[in-house]
């Protein structure tokens, strides 16, 4: 067993202990104080072993991806791989959802008293409803919005209103929309990784993006739809900063980021991931004017319609602490949320994140070694391939930090920076205290980018088997709330 693999297993074991601790401590807190408001800590779920019509399909998809996924991902033509990834992700998500049956697993998920479809009839006049939207956020306000409607900007609800207007009304169509669009998030991540790192890493990441435990909550949850919109924001920006039609892709990225901010307040943190993309791109400034023009479109449209994003967010914070958010203990959830994250990204991603951290820490050491006084000079006044000036006969060297020209660094480091930015955004969301519990659903947009760290792993089939096993156990043993 190699040293790296042994360290991966240690990291996975530590993550498993975190989940066990969250379950034991959470159960004790809920039994004594009843303040967690979840049925199976740390997840919003209840114990309920079951099988369903999706069970055989889920087993087949898992076996096929584990057995053939890495080989197929390495050999398929690129565009065919993207199509295969989207199709397989849909098959995996649909089969997991149907373990709970059509009604409970898909058709009624978005029709509960907390969900968006409860208020479709109140949007018969969309501009008028948007002008009055903030008046119904607080719990004590007249006809207050359901939890998810109040907890998000109105673009989320308007999406389902528009689906209803074109004849795709009801929970079944809404669920199918979320699964179909949400499954494309893995394609967006692959596009971004190929553009910013290289194709080989994207191909190695593909099976891990498809075979994700996160699919348990991608079907059916509106956050799966949010994850896809946010992922395509980053994918288009990655294409723009690497010279792929920068005007069009830059504008598309900005447009989708504006939409992302009006789907979920917390996804404004994707600006941090976008900043990492700009750092990694060789043409970081060229698409910026087009991206900024795109960013303005959705906010201007909603503002002209009468919706005030900042006022709504202020009221949401007040509403959050009026409800369960004011009762759930921060001291527990600030670390138990991370246990939820372990369950949605799986053991392979935990190991991948360990390798991501190792890549980030190792690179500066290598650069220091190459610029040490004992390193052989490359020639008077000539920079080495990292942009550092080296002079003969002098131990004095001007070191340019590697972060100033990330486009010239290794593909592995560029991928590590992208993953680290997503993890940093997730940690900020955690520390904010605005995501206490239910993060297995809320943090799906961030989780998709963590999954890409699977590209760093050796022995992919064993890790994929662990991912599939976790997802199947979660979906068969628990009745999830989303």
Defining traits:
482 residues, mainly alpha, globular
Task: Give the SSE layout.
Elements (H helix, E strand, L loop, with lengths): L2 H30 L12 E3 L7 H21 L2 H20 L4 H6 L18 H6 L15 H4 L4 H11 L5 H13 L1 H12 L2 H12 L4 H4 L3 H20 L4 H16 L8 H11 L7 H18 L3 H14 L7 H41 L11 E2 L5 E2 L20 H22 L6 H4 L1 H7 L9 H18 E3 L2
Helix pairs in contact: 1-17, 2-3, 2-10, 2-21, 3-8, 3-9, 3-10, 8-12, 9-10, 9-12, 12-13, 12-14, 12-20, 13-15, 14-18, 17-18, 17-20, 17-21, 18-20
Commentary on this structure:
The chain is mainly α and 482 residues long. It has helices spanning 3-32, 55-75, 78-97, 102-107, 126-131, 147-150, 155-165, 171-183, 185-196, 199-210, 215-218, 222-241, 246-261, 270-280, 288-305, 309-322, 330-370, 411-432, 439-442, 444-450, 460-477; strands at 45-47, 382-383, 389-390, 478-480. The strands form two sheets. It has a two-stranded antiparallel sheet with strand order 1-4. A two-stranded antiparallel ribbon has the order 2-3. The longest helix is centred in the last third of the chain and has 41 residues, at 330-370. 49% of the residues are buried.
Rg, Å, rounded: 23 Å
- Topology, number of strands: 4
The main pleated sheet reads as: 2 strands, antiparallel
Amount of beta strand: under 5%
N→C terminal distance: 40 Å
Which term fits the overall shape? globular
